[in-house]
Amino acid sequence: MTALLEVEDLRVAYGKIEAVKGISFSVEAGQVVTLIGTNGAGKTTTLRTLSGLLKPLGGRILFEGKPLTNIPAHKIVALGLAHSPEGRHIFPRLTITENLLLGAYLRSDKAGIEKDVQRAYDLFPILGERRKQAAGTLSGGEQQMLAMGRALMSQPKLLMLDEPSMGLSPIMMQKIMETIVELKASGTTILLVEQNAQAALSLADQGHVMEVGKIVLTGTGADLLHDESVRKAYLGED
Amino acid sequence: MNELPQQLANGLILGAMYGLIAIGYTMVYGIIQLINFAHGEIFMIGGFGALTVYLGLPSGLSLIAAIPLMIAGGVIAAVAISMAAERFAYRPLRTAPRLAPLITAIGLSLALQQAVWMWYPNATKDRSFPQFEGEAFEVFGANIQRGDLFVLVVAPLCMIALGLFVSKTRAGRGMQATSQDPDTAKLMGINTDRIIVMAFAIGAAFAAVAAVAYGLKNGQIGFRMGFIMGLKAFTAAVLGGIGNIYGAMLGGVVLGVAESLATGYMSEVPGMELFGGGAWKDVWAFALLILVLLIRPQGLLGERVADRA
Fold first, then answer.
1. Beta pairing partners, A67
2. Which helix (H) or strand (E) holds A116?
3. Which residue of A has its CA nearest to B190?
4. Which residues of chain B make contact with A105, given a CB cutoff of 8 A?
5. ipTM above 0.90, yes or no
6. Which of A138, B50, B122, B249 has the smallest number of CB atoms closer than 10 Å to its CB?
7. Do residue A22 and residue A36 come from a single domain?
């Protein structure tokens, strides 16, 4: 069986500075895979390249066996790859409902869209209560929920979440992580980028540790969680 | 004749024209942060497009019947030139420093003026534009010329149509998303290049409608007409809050009325006797702009946006 997403020797540069220096990994359907690592390791760059916002310097990205590297960003989402970006990037002056509808921009099944908006409200009741409010008035955690809900609106085969817990209160962070577990249980395939290694590894099937543009360690979530070097570097133990 | 209603009516007619042109500045700025200084010339070309159609029509046709065809001709000419400018002049500079497209816009503005001057028959002088015959209407004590009625009817209709398009349609939502966050808009599957073209096209179409209104009001059009009208419309866009379509229309009306009132009444203000009359109206228009920028830099309806320097 071929993997849903296959990344081979991917290299990405900003001008002359190479941010991702030849990484390879894959994501199987139904899995949660996480990329962890410190700031500047190249995690966000990797996701932005997968969704077409950045052009790679070299390497291959295969999604369902199809190369993605020459497809513009706005066509990649149509193939089933949704990206909830770092920093949430909700549309601040549009309402919550309008933000969700933008997630379904390429869909034309009105009834299905309606149903999925409702599903987002069921997943995050606070969004339902504030549906007519401008998204910019939401708290950080609520904006994160909206960003995730919006990404799900395209009915993705692969959901990419970039730092969903960034800047959130512990309670809100827990709520977001619980939602990821829920999504996983319902069969959603997720590629998760996180600085909160503990949380990410404890729910991931597979994890990759990135350092300055390279994958330095790969293993199951549980393995990495118990790996001594990971514990030292990312889980704050000495 | 009652003077105040007349001044207000004149201001409203002028302001509606400013507002229609200002839409083009504000939509393009809202999406790619470019001040399209060639937009005044797009307005001018809309006028010549409409005139060309009029000259080609059989002479027996009434002006009322000719107007829709003239609008169509103006819109086609303005939209075509505007889309070509976007594709060949601005798009290659999308990632260049912001000064580059700005200078390009100024250059394009001069080039378009000169092109019309050289190649449009007898355009080195003003060309006369068809006029409605007949008495002016009297409304609330103001005389409104038949030709001026056009903009008073069409501008609100255009605005309502644009408002519905932006808020109710999928493409309109895509446009709002692109203006708020272009990269994330791409992640939604929005073809932002197409949205940008759409913004240029809508702005050009509105400018062409304004040009027909201008021709009907003034009785003539010329290759230079885009300069001062464009500058005023840009002022209106900034006044209303650049990036905001309702702000553009409001800014246009406020500017038009302010100009008209200053022309009519400034000479009656003690100490200002020298500064009344039509010759000073541009001064008051730009003075108003400076005042608004000092007190409310984001414009009347603009929002303070910290992340856009």
1. A62
2. helix A110-123
3. A74
4. 170, 173-174, 188-190
5. yes
6. B122
7. yes
User: Are A217 and A229 within 8 A, CB to CB?
Assistant: yes
Minimal Cβ distance to B177: which of A73, A75, A91: A91
User: Residue A222 is part of a domain; what is its CATH number?
Assistant: 3.40.50.300
Contact state of B187 with A83 under an 8 Å Cβ cutoff: yes
Write the pLDDT tens digit of every residue in B90-108: 999 999 998 999 999 999 9
Residue at which a domain ends, from A138, A155, A172: A155
Min CA distance, B199 vs chain A (Å)? 18
Q: Do B186 and A92 touch (CB under 8 A)?
A: no
Rounded mean pLDDT of B179-203? 97
Q: Tell me the whole-structure pTM to 2 decimals.
A: 0.91
Q: What residues does each domain of chain B span?
A: 8-225
Query: How many independent structural domains does chain A possess?
Result: 2
Q: Do B184 and A85 touch (CB under 8 A)?
A: yes
Same domain flag for A105 and A53: no
Range of the domain at A31: 1-80+156-237
Cβ pairs A/B, distance under 8 A: 63
Interface with chain A: mutation pick from B173, B184, B187, B190, highest number of A CBs within 10 Å: B187
| Interface check A156 vs B, CB under 8 A | no
**Statement: residue A191 has pLDDT above 90:** yes
For chain B, percent of residues with pLDDT exceeding 70:
97
CA atoms within 13 A on the CB side of A215: 19
Domain boundary among A155, A181, A201: A155
Do A136 and A164 lie in one domain? The reply is no
Looking at the partner chain, which of A53, A89, A154 has a beta carbon nearest the beta carbon of B189?
A154
